[in-house]
Amino acid sequence: MMKEQLETQDIYNLIHSEGIFILYGYAPICANCRIAERMLKLTQEIHDFEYTAIDLNYHVDIINDYKITSAPALLIFEDGELKENVYRFESVTNLLNILERHR
Question: Does 2 map to a domain?
């Protein structure tokens, strides 16, 4: 997981790279975001994948461009195209099923 403060343009570059790119958007004061990230980390232990985490407060352009409606948000891109966005993490099993669709 990459959880450093990235510039918005860097995130766009990652989104438009080839292959699968997973973006996790959160807000630091969001309790659901902390729970969702714990589920995401457990999912990552089971199903090896990388994701980039960003504080949505600093990326209004991404919120607008991809119509992010709430935090936490998990956006899955394939070859630069948004394939799925997830706002209800529900369970580790649910996240595993979502990621399996994009292998």
Answer: no
Provide the pLDDT for residue 2: 47
19: CATH = 3.40.30.10
The reply to whether 3 falls in a domain is no
Give the model confidence (pLDDT) of 29-65 as tens digits: 999 999 999 999 999 999 889 999 999 999 999 999 9
Q: Which pairs from 8-14 meet CB under 8 Å and 24+ separation?
A: 8/58, 8/59, 8/61, 8/62, 11/52, 11/54, 11/59, 11/62, 12/62, 14/52
Residue 89 falls inside a structural domain: yes
